[in-house]
Structures are given as C-alpha cells and as structure tokens.
Amino acid sequence: xxxxxxxxxxxxxxxxxxxxxxxxxxxxxxxxxxxxxxxxxxxxxxxxxxxxxxxxxxxxxxxxxxxxxxxxxxxxxxxxxxxxxxxxxxxxxxxxxxxxxxxxxxxxxxxxxxxxxxxxxxxxxxxxxxxxxxxxxxxxxxxxxxxxxxxxxxxxxxxxxxxxxxxxxxxxxxxxxxxxxxxxxxxxxxxxxxxxxxxxxxxxxxxxxxxxxxxxxxxxxxxxxxxxxxxxxxxxxxxxxxxxxxxxxxxxxxxxxxxxxxxxxxxxxxxxxxxxxxxxxxxxxxxxxxxxxxxxxxxxxxxxxxxxxxxx
Length: 312
Hints:
single chain, alpha/beta, Spore Coat Polysaccharide Biosynthesis Protein SpsA, Chain A, 2 domains, nine-stranded mixed β-sheet, 12 helices, 52% helix, elongated
C-alpha cells in the first residue's frame, strides 16, 4: 500500500511569537509533513512573511474571514491524503505527526482523529495553566470513539472532508466550526477517534455549542458533556440560590454546605488530578474557577436553549 501523504493546514491571523513556535515545532517533527499550507487570514503583523521564510506554501486572503474559511481555502489547495489542521498558537510534540500517520495506516476505516491538550502548558500564569490542564483532563477521561472534531489538532482524510463540504464558513469567528464538522462527518457514517497519546500544547465555547447540541440532539457524554458535569451545573445553581436567600432563611445555610460538599465529592477526581500536577495551593485556587465554569456554562446553555426554542 502506498504511503499516505500529509498536508498540514494552518490558518493564521496576527500569530506573533506563538505562530513562530508553532512553525518551529513542525520543523522539529520526527516525521516531516509532505506539505505545509499557511493561510494568512488578512493578518497585519507579517505572519505570512514568517511562513514564507519557513518554506511553507502561503495563501494570502485580503481580509479576515475566520478560521473556517481559511481552513477550507487551505484544504482546497492541499494535495495530501490526510489534512492535518493545526492552529497557529499550537505547538506539536516531535512524535505527533508520526503517531497520526501510524493510526491512519493501521486503521484504514479511520476517517479522522483528534489529539489532546498536553499536561505541560508553556504559559506560566494561573488561568492559562488551569485552562490547559482542565482541557487535558477532559480529553484524557473521554471515550476514544467520538462524534466531534478539533481544528487545533485534528486530522481527517481529504476525500471525506470534501465529501461533507468542509467547515461551515458561517462561523466567522473561532467558534464551534470544528465540532459542527465532526457532527456532520459522524452523521455521514465516518469514524472519528480521540487518541490521548497524540498531544499538543495549546475558552469555553458554550453559547454556539448549545445551539448546535439542540439542533442535532447530540448529547453524548464526551468531553464537557458528562453526567458529572451536568450534575455539577445543577448543584452550582442551587448553591447560588441558597446563598442568595440564606440571609432570610437560616436553615438554607445547611443546604448550601451540603451542596458545597457534594460539588467537592463528585469532582474529587478532578481536584486530585490538579493536586498531583500542581500541588495543594494551585488546587485550592482551581476550585472557585471550576465552579464559575459550571455557572457560566449552565447560564450559557439556558440562554442558548431559550434562544433556540424562541427562534424556531
């Protein structure tokens, strides 16, 4: 069987230092890509020149149109059997491309795959560390067979990508265009998988994702949609309600304490993960942000649900 050819497609808009690191990581790959296509999405910081100096094929778009359009433009110009989409702020591990090639060669029925956030984010600030590690945790506990895609580090057979029409260009901002693509691929009968050992170093997209979930009625317990997360959202909202009325009804305080203990218990594995990775102080700082994530996600889902039903 002929060896598979790989095309890396990178959309970039004012990529800066992160984009330079992205290109450098590709250069250090143990398995070189057969072609690198960089789509300059109306950038004004000279990112396209950085890509040219690197040796990539550069396609310049006159004005920003969003990553969905940029990826589609790059995919149309690609010649590889496999399209490997990488975001401009992502750095690949040296073995990433080799592992991707290995999986497609080993499983001929595999249409697409996504990788995982790694557990060693380069940014030193707390919120970046928390966000990256939390995404890494969710990827690592998710099932391997999935119905979604990830444009930051995801590969798909070129034939299948074009068969379903590529990314939906109506998503003009970085959004859930990759998730939506995954839903269309799986609806068409194509097989997608999450491989947790294929890792990259890399915000929560709740509002448009809610509309997509309701439209496709796809509530599979993968990534952020587990039963534990859904129950945590309910607990956080009940906790906020208890805290709001405890001044007038004393016994409600006991309910608030119960909900706090419930949240700690059902998310114990998450906090153990952070404790192992960053220690006690970091974990204590994580807890309120984790609950804020549930509050924001729940509020966004409620708003998105109301909007979906009112506009039908």
